C-alpha cells in the first residue's frame, strides 16, 4: 500500500535563523508537506549543509530543507523569524526587500523592545508574534532535539482578531506543535516578559535550574524580592492585573520547568550573548521613563553583562 504524501500547506515558508527554534519549525513545516526554505545570516553556515535532522522521542528523522542566504532570489510570502531578540532588526532588514505583496511575518522571540522597529521594517506585510514554550536545543549544527513539548501562542501584532490569528495558524504545522491563536498578543508578550524578568537572569547568575529559585535560602529570597519589584513596576506601567498575578505566575512557571535550564543560562554556558537587554533591560528602560525605581533589575543587567563581557555577538 502506498501512503499519500501530506497535502502541502498553502504558501511557501521561509524560516530566518538556523538555531534550535529555526530548525524545529523548518523541520516540522517540511514534515507537514510545506515548501520551506531556511535562511542563514552567515554564508559560512552553507558549507557542508545536508538538511535538518529532527530528533524526537520517536527517533531521528532527516528533512531535506533548502538553505540559502538573505540575498536569495525568491520573493517571501510567509516569514518566520527565529533569531535571537537582539538580531531581529538586522536579520529582518536583510530580507525585507524580498517580502511579497500580502506577505505575513511572524516574530518568535523572548523579550520586548524590538517589535515596533520590526513593524516598520516589515512595511506593508502583516506582522504577527509567536511565543513558544517548546523545549528544543541543537546537539550539533542543523540537528535539533525536540526535548519538551509545549505550545505556541500566535497573534497579530500589536493585536488583531482571533479569526486572523486562526487563519495564519492553519498555515503552520500542528501535528507535533500545538499552536494557540490569540487576539491580544501584546498582553501575552508582557506576561512572558514579566516571567522571563523574574527567572532568566537569576538562573543565569546562579547557574541553577529554574526550580532552584523556589527553594528556601538566598536564591529563593532574591527571587521573591525581584518579583516584588517587578510587581511595582508593572502596576506603575498600567498592567495591574498582570502585577497581581505575577508572583504566582512566575512561581508556577519555575515549578513547571523546574529541571530546565533557562534560555539565558544556556546562552551564558555556551559563551553566547544573552537577551538581557530585551528582557530586564527593556523593563528598566520603561521603569525609568515612568520614574519608578528598579534597583534589582538594574543590578541584574549589570551582573549579566559582566558575566558575558567576552561573549560572541550572536
Ligand atoms: O522562557 C523561558 C526561558 O528560559 O527563556 C522560561 C519560561 C524561563 C523557561 O525556561
How would you characterize the overall build of this protein?
This protein has 314 residues and is α/β, with parallel strands linked by helices. The protein has 2 domains: 13-183, NAD(P)-binding Rossmann-like Domain (Rossmann fold); 188-307, N-(1-d-carboxylethyl)-l-norvaline Dehydrogenase, domain 2 (Orthogonal Bundle), CATH 1.10.1040.10. Helix content is 40%, strand content 21%. It is built from 10 helices and 12 strands. The strands form 2 sheets. The protein has an 8-stranded mixed sheet, sandwiched between helices. The protein has a 4-stranded mixed sheet with strand order 4-3-10-9, covered by helices on one side. The structure holds ketopantoate (KPL). Ketopantoate binds at residues 110, 195-196, 199-200, 210, 253, 257, 260, 262-263.
Annotate the secondary structure layout.
Elements lengths: L12 E4 L3 H12 L4 E5 L11 E5 L2 E5 L2 E4 L6 E6 L6 H8 L3 E10 L6 H8 L3 E7 L2 E6 L2 E6 L3 E5 L5 H8 L9 E3 L3 H22 L11 H19 L3 H17 L6 H7 L10 H11 L4 H13 L7
Parallel strand pairs: 1-2, 1-6, 2-5, 3-10, 6-7, 7-8, 11-12
Antiparallel strand pairs: 3-4, 8-11, 9-10
Helix pairs in contact: 2-3, 5-6, 5-7, 5-8, 5-10, 6-7, 9-10
Bound molecules: ketopantoate.
